[in-house]
Amino acid sequence: QHVTCEPLGRSAHCTPGCKHWCDPALGWENWGCSWDSDHLKDMLEQQRIAEPILREVSARDSVVAFGTFVGALLWVKLFDLIATRGVLPKTVTRKIVHITCGPFFVVMWPLFSDARVAPFLAGLVPAAQIVRFLLIATGGLNDLTAVRAVSREGNRMELLRGPFYYCVVLLCVTLAFWRDNPAGAITLAAMCGGDGFADVVGRRWGRGNPLPFNPGKSWAGSAGMFVGGSALAVALLALLQASGSLDFEWGGMLGVVALVMLCSTVLEALPVNNLIDDNISVPLLAAGLSQYLLNG
């Protein structure tokens, strides 16, 4: 097959950034490829940036991320089984899942390496749950266990509300704060422990002591949120400190935790549930306020 090189030694049939050359005397079979210098520099720079990052993707981090994902699935299935067999009411098991899944995720953080890609690999766990919830809600995946375990009424579309927001917060906190910023643990403690215990305690001891400005909430539930969120925050911070991820003085940290949980409790008690979900409002406030207090 005859090929004409225009200009001599260069083919007119080129892909962006790549110039084919040939020897007109030898023809088509002897085509090769040479790169424009600017394009070659860009490629080498991208390779220089990507290679050390990809090299850091260790088997350790991959195994921990996979184990965390599988562990979370098994945890949810366990409480679905407990509810199905009538050991505990569904309202209780659903809140236990809410309270414990976030802390379980944080407990796994110290097992990851110090590589720069570690938080991104950890973030794949809630990201995978987000995709899973989207598939279940849209009918692309059939998982009755997940629907029963985390929804109020057994409607798969509910997964796109509270549970979906919950996983989005886990992802954002992981990428924004990771284990070397106390704001991450405090934020998840407010959402998981605070909001979770507010519901459990409010249902059990909230009758007869409604809040004057919101009859749907109770003094007992608010106390449960403050105490539960504070206790969980202290536990997670102690874990991260013991693992060497955090270094702080408890005197000032306890003040930050108390103020963040107090403000989060007030927000959760306000009649704004119809406007914004607690799984969005509470962690947003907790993250912003804790970050401000820690850096102020």
Name its key features.
mainly alpha, two-stranded antiparallel sheet, 296 residues, single chain
Task: Summarize the SSE layout with pairings.
Blueprint: E1 18-21, E2 32-35, H1 37-55, H2 59-84, H3 90-108, H4 118-137, H5 144-150, H6 162-176, H7 182-205, E3 210-211, E4 214-218, H8 219-242, H9 250-269, H10 278-295
Antiparallel strand pairs: 1-2, 3-4
Helix pairs in contact: 2-3, 2-4, 2-5, 3-7, 4-6, 6-7, 6-10, 7-8, 7-9, 7-10, 8-9, 9-10
Structure description:
Strands 1-2 form a two-stranded antiparallel sheet. A two-stranded antiparallel ribbon has the order 3-4. The model is unreliable at 1-24 and 26-36 (pLDDT under 50). It is mostly helical and 296 residues long. It is built from 10 helices and 4 strands. The N and C termini lie far apart (73 Å). It has helices at 37-55, 59-84, 90-108, 118-137, 144-150, 162-176, 182-205, 219-242, 250-269, 278-295; strands at 18-21, 32-35, 210-211, 214-218.
Helical segment count: 10
Low-confidence stretches: 1-24, 26-36
**What's the arrangement of strands in the largest beta sheet?**
1-2
Helix-strand string: EEHHHHHHHEEHHH
Calculate the terminal CA-CA distance, rounded to whole Å.
73 Å
Mean pLDDT: 84
Q: What is the radius of gyration?
A: 27 Å
Helix-strand category = mainly alpha
Strand content: 5-15%
Profile the largest sheet: 2 strands, antiparallel
Number of strands: 4
Q: Give the overall silhouette.
A: globular
Helix content: 55-70%
